[in-house]
Amino acid sequence: MNCIMLLGFVSPIARTLSSPLSLQSRRILSSICRNSQMGRDNVKLIHKKTHANSRICSVAGYKTDLLEIHAQNPAFHVLLIPGNPGFISFYTDFLESLYELLGGNASVTGIAHVSHTQKNWEQGKLFSLQEQIDHKMSFIEQELKEVEVPILLVGHSIGAYISLEMLRRSQGKVTYCFCLYPFLAVNTNSSTQSIIRKLAMSHILCNIVSSIVALFGILPVWVSKFLVKESLGKAWSSSAVDCLCTQVLQYHAMRNVLFMAMTEFKELSETPDWAFMRENKSLISFLFGLDDHWGPLHMLEEISKQVPDALIAVEEEGHSHSFCCTEAGSSWVAQHVATLIKNHLSISS
Fold first, then answer.
1. Residue 97 host element (H or E)
2. Is 0.90 surpassed by the pTM of this model?
3. For 276-296, what is each residue's pLDDT tens digit?
4. N- or C-end of the chain: fewer Cβ atoms within 10 A?
């Protein structure tokens, strides 16, 4: 559990950006934060959700967890790419809210990362960031091959980076990419990232941390749930607590979380592909948080400079990077994405 906190998935513990906003940040915020008030009333309109169905499928030979809600006559298909940890059950509330807000006009699917699963299907094999990207492309080619409607990607954290790579490789199959709290480059100003990087780079430390995490996993579920609620507060949704206690707290799972993190730090040390973003800016949108070391505001400023007129918004409601772990955060971000989807489709039609 402590390693999950270090990874920054729980932003209230991992927050490190406490410096005042720069003048440029304030100018950007004043011009693009109009969306911050959206959804506060509309979210209340969601009364009864259609529940997502879980399914295990084989993707490129690897057993993969899915969350799905199929519409009867969908106009488009939304595919969610998670962050790291990439356990798709963390996003249950978000996916269900998004489906309802889209009025049943879209099928929605959330796909877990390989071996970010409750069972050790892959016998301890470790998967890199590039292997996770290949896995998601295999899913589209295999499971969504016959889908004739547009495919819209929603990527969270490192999932935003993965989504952009999928947009690059999709050859028209993917038509839009929504990047939520995006992790696109290593933040050298973040002490939290520095600590996680040193941990992830050490095979010995990874084994120690994963073993400690596994000890929590053998506790009775009611005990681990109590500890999670006491350490994380009562804001987390029941689905997020269940996911952490029943799926994440295992040796093979934590080793894969840390190994993927190690490869992320290596790959994201390079400069983002600004040319690709400029060429495809009409197909990409970004949502940043005010206090998020994974997607810091200086990255927002850099995108604004390198990709003029890019569609960028800032969430100011306090839901932060771990939005999917709370019902309120899931509902707000779902409203934001649903509004962007409707706007995009109205422009495209």
1. helix 92-101
2. no
3. 999 999 999 999 999 899 999
4. C
Q: Going by C-beta distance under 8 Å and a sequence separation of 6 or more, which residues neighbour residue 223?
A: none
What is the CA 243 to chain-centroid distance, rounded?
15
Lowest mean pLDDT, pick from 94-98, 319-323, 344-348: 344-348
Please name which of 102, 131, 101, 96 lies closest in space to residue 115, comparing C-alpha atoms.
131
What is the C-alpha separation between 247 and 253, in angstroms, rounded?
8
Of 184, 186, 150, 175, give the one whose Cα is nearest residue 284.
Answer: 175
pLDDT at 64 over 60: yes
- At 111 the three-state DSSP class reads strand
- Gyration radius from the chain CA atoms: 19
Distance of CA 87 to the CA centre of its chain: 10
DSSP 189-245: T-HHHHHHHHHHH-HHHHHHHHHHHHHHHTS-HHHHHHHHHHHH-S-S-HHHHHHII
Query: What ranges make up the beta strands (E) of 26-140?
Result: 53-59, 62-69, 76-81, 106-111
